[in-house]
Amino acid sequence: MLHFATLPLPLLLLCLNFASVVYTHGYVAQVTIDGKTYQGNEPQGTSNPSIIRQISTIDPVMSVNDSNLNCGWNAPKATLVADANPGSKLTFTWSGGPGGYPWPHNVGPFFFYMAPCVNTTCDQYNSINAEWFKIAEVGAKPGGAEWYQQNIMDGYPANVTLPADLAPGQYLVRHEIIALHEATTIDEAQYYPSCTQINVKGNETGYPTSNETCPFPGCYKDTDPGLYDPTVYNTPIQYTFPGPPLATFVLASANSSDPGTNPTGSGNGSSSGGSSGADPGADGNSGNGSSTSAASSGKGTCKVVRPDGEYFVVQRTRHRRSVNQVLRRWLSDTKRVVMRY
Ligand SMILES: [Cu+2]
């Protein structure tokens, strides 16, 4: 049902009188490895040399059986491979899409998987054959009032530390956000996978066991409690991560390598304890939130945000009527509408 009365009237009128709608999801715009920055390519944008496999759309993958669940929508191999080491710190900066919008969701976990690029280098590796192991899973913050994904919406990167015992070789790092804001219905979880190509140096020996790996698609089932979750809005958040368990060599090699720069707490926020070195939202020095508010507060634009984080940016055009129809339909499945301007 509609609750337009909760909108400040002048802003509502602005939104309904201007037009053209941008509906954002997101992609990985940038990765840093031990402080060195690598740019990603915008979906549909120019394909510059990169270590991040370029996806074709910011839209989510919507099925656990979709081959795009592997490395994201239609992602070809990337041309570069970046050096890294056991214990390297990786940060992943998300964008809501071309134009500098922020990541729009804040309900659900995020993950870091790895897979060796078997018998070749990662710039030549077809990831559909990959056997993935999990090095980090990040869910609710301590206390269970909100998810660490909120930090990404706030413009902070998602961080992970590579296992201290990781064996050398070329690997894909599969970083994935799962947005659960509509996962009270089966098959409505949104998957945002991304693959980054790295070459791990050193002479460590850590490796997963075969029962700790699985392919994508294949690691998830649509009935997994962490993917179909009628209680996802209950607090404190109770959550069961989907997919394989954290690889035991990751748990065994976990140490106090967290540099402690995270203002919102350290660790991975998961109930599995220890491990993983995921340090979500650590420093915030590469966030994209500030440019976003500037972009969306320009003359003739406004942004309508639902409590679950989905939002529209509305801009001035001539197609007023169709935009109004879309907006009404979109607002009608939320209980409360919040304007962010
Ligand atoms: Cu989205």
From TrEMBL:
Residues 25-229 form the Auxiliary Activity family 9 catalytic domain. Residues 252-301 are annotated as: Disordered. Residues 266-276 have a biased composition (Gly residues). Its cofactor is Cu(2+). One of its GO terms (molecular function) is metal ion binding. Residues 277-298 have a biased composition (Low complexity). One of its GO terms (cellular component) is extracellular region. GO terms for biological process: cellulose catabolic process. Pfam families: AA9. Belongs to the polysaccharide monooxygenase AA9 family. This is lytic cellulose monooxygenase (C4-dehydrogenating). It comes from Coniophora puteana (strain RWD-64-598) (Brown rot fungus).
